[in-house]
Amino acid sequence: MLALLSFIFLLIIFIYIKSPRLSKNEPPLVPYTVPVIGHTFSYFLNTENFIKKCLKEYGEPFNIIIFGKVVTVVAQKYIPEMIKAHENFSSIEVFRELIPLHLILGHDPFVNIDFHAKTTREQISGKLTLHFDRIQKDVLYYLDKQIGECNKPKSVKEIWDFTNHVTAKSIANICMGEEASQHDDVVHAFAVLTDDMNKFFFLPPIFSFIHPKLHEYVISLPFLFGFNPIAKHQKVLINRMKPIVENRIQQKKILGDSYEPSNDLLEFYMSQSDFDSSSVDYNCLSDLIAFMIFAGIGTTGRSLANLLFDYVGNPQCWDELYEEASTINKECNGKLTLNDANKMIKLESFIRESFRHTGDMIIAPRAVTTDHFTFSNGFTVPKGRHVLDFSEDSLFSESVYGPDSKSFKPFQFVSKNVSASKIDKTYLVFGGGRHACPGRFYAVLVMKLFLYHVLLKYHVRTESGNIPKKSMMGPFSVPSKESLIFERRKE
């Protein structure tokens, strides 16, 4: 009896300590039944319906409790205010807490996020003309390797894994060069590294009910026993890059000013002022590339899988998309250039619509980094508060996309002449403002080249004949696991 009373007493103290303390003029806190747990289950089990219900009853913004922590939710009306006030918010602070990469990489890559963003913007997106032929070659290589001629129907399973490898082949070439990207172990490392990392970090933060730091401590325990989920992939990267780096250092010594640098990120990293050619830190180089993989492979591969399923699910578009692709292919005599790719306005519109139907409820959560932030309606949120953007409210805005905004409208952007990478207040799939994804131009190009070549060569359908739906993991969507059937297109 004494033990039971002691437990109840400690539980009461714990609940009291963990009870939310809201500051003055905060958004309303949605009522909840279970202390500490709050709205956790309602939020993760049916994010869309839960948030829509809260919006209807309390307006925006409003506060909820997830894993014992107060978070603020904004939707279409106040997302633009948050994006505009970029100096008051940071997505990096949220990702650093949810995905402590320093446990794996040995340092905090988010500290140098501006460097990574600039590298992506200038060395990848800014050089698409130089990268174009390599990207197209790599897309064709993996289509041929994985699908081939398809004189007989071929079933391809695990489409997301397939599209991750398509993306990996291209990014490996841009990051480490042509030589390294020829090796299957390098492409495989690029393709699965993010997934292996996510399996480790994306554990439900159940210990956050007690304290946020306790969750980080628990997931760091395996490292105390020498377990690192991506160590084997980093070993592959180092083994493959080492002879390349050594050869380039030697060539620079021999050729001097006549040395012609390679057009890849490895060369770019070697050109930095802190690079020491006499004592190369290969762990640092692999960490830089690993972060680029983490930032680009999973998201691009997922978008590519979604695009393929959206194409299969909209047979009314097949003829028009094929006709456009076939016309461009004839005009360029089968030698597509970046300028030719930009002429495919129907394909561009289809890709943009596929992004609009991404399925994610939350795109870019942010944390308040200043003392506080006050919305235009007077509600104030304190420093450190996580603010979730209910992006679906913007992506399916009826005032912009009509009363049937949730319908898939493949060619609605053709007349508007807007690219799939262009962001606006109702198209937030790449974030917004100054912190919008710098790699979006590359991602769109890969998707365009991929579907263009699929259109020219294959008929694609689902194995069941039905149109599969995305799965949901809390507020995030996951491409269907259904197989797709590829068959050679007949002239």
UniProtKB/TrEMBL annotation:
Needed cofactors, names only, are:
heme
Task: From the UniProt annotation, give the residues forming the signal peptide.
Answer: 1-23
GO molecular function: any one?
A: monooxygenase activity
What keywords are annotated for this sequence in UniProt? Heme, Iron, Metal-binding, Monooxygenase, Oxidoreductase, Signal
Q: Which CDD domains match?
A: CYP503A1-like (cd11041)
Origin: domain of life: Eukaryota
Instruction: Name the family the entry cites.
Output: Belongs to the cytochrome P450 family.
Binding positions for heme per the UniProt entry: C437
Q: Taxonomically, what lineage is the organism?
A: Eukaryota, Fungi, Fungi incertae sedis, Mucoromycota, Glomeromycotina
Q: Per the record's keyword annotation, is Cell membrane included, yes or no?
A: no
Q: What is this protein called?
A: Cytochrome P450
